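Researcher: If convenient, please comment on what follows.
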Amino acid sequence: MIFYSNKITWIYEKIKLFNCFTNKDIYSIEKYKINSSKPSVNGELICFIPVFGEEELNNDWVVFFETLGSSKNFIGFKLFIYILGTNEPIQLDLPIFKQIKYYCKYLSLKYYIFPFKLYEGSSFSEFELFSFYTKQQVVNKSSYKCLIDNAVFDSKDSVTPINIEITDTTSIKNGFYSILRSEKNHKYVSSFLEECTSYSLIINRAKIKNSDIRIKKQNYKLKRLHLISNSLQKVPNFSKLINLEVLNLTANNIMNVIAGSNLPKKLKVLNISKNRAQTLIIEDIFPELEKLVLFNNNFDSFYLDAKSFPSLKYLNIGRIKKIKALPEYIYSLKKLEFLCLSYLNIDQLDERIFSMPKLKYIDIRGLTSNLTNEEICTTLIKNGIRVIC
């Protein structure tokens, strides 16, 4: 689709010659109705825009881009801009470009700007204009990028550009909530999980419920998933996230933790701290799990079989108020290197803690004043174990 203003009489003939190469529909902005017309099927807009004086958009073009920016039909389009004016190179900090990007800020447009202004006696041929159009590295967007662009438009917000390492849905506008926080944007959650091409996906503070997560397609790329401060009441089924290594479900409303076929077997880190969990049921073996964080929950009791976690190196059971003595299973975790017992209601450490051959750190903050056996702490330190207190 090519757009121009019929108030600049000389440009139409040049556009017609240019269009001999592109073969697109030509519209004047004075007559074209964006909201009542179907957009281009190839996802491209080519605009020949006159700029004089203060180098701002005139009223007709302001209306055009305002209307364009409010239409979901143009999300993710490629916008080619040819500026009409005096004989001089283009400066990319001109007010006109700031205006266009402002009016279209939620469309996630890709901009291509011809580097020189065109004028009636311009020496640039129509073929040169076409060459600029064809030489751009225009790559079709992935379905995942389209998904993000639609979520951005619906939220009327924006996020940090995605890359191969991370997709962070945190709002740039407020820097805290996810752009998926609105109930109407929860429809995107499962698709984000299925389509994510980044190694890490962050959807924190989005009010996500269990009913919002229905993963039907396998995802082999996602390795780290953070769903902090949402409204989950149980651990969802993430089994189709085949290569997931890190799962952070901190500060949800999880009452009962079941870890089995709902979790991928390549999981290395599981964090369910600061929930309201009362039970922990382990139904499967997680051969690669190295870090388990159960901090600040309401467990009555739970059992960790060393056979279920043969690689466990880090365990945090701090602030679980109902633990009155160090659980027996702790001593069977022979590969454990870090043990957090902070703020537990235990009176003493058992000498069997010396039987843990790999232990390097033990966190006893908040309970040191209640310990009746300080000799154990002294011995741990002598044995090269760092005691955090």
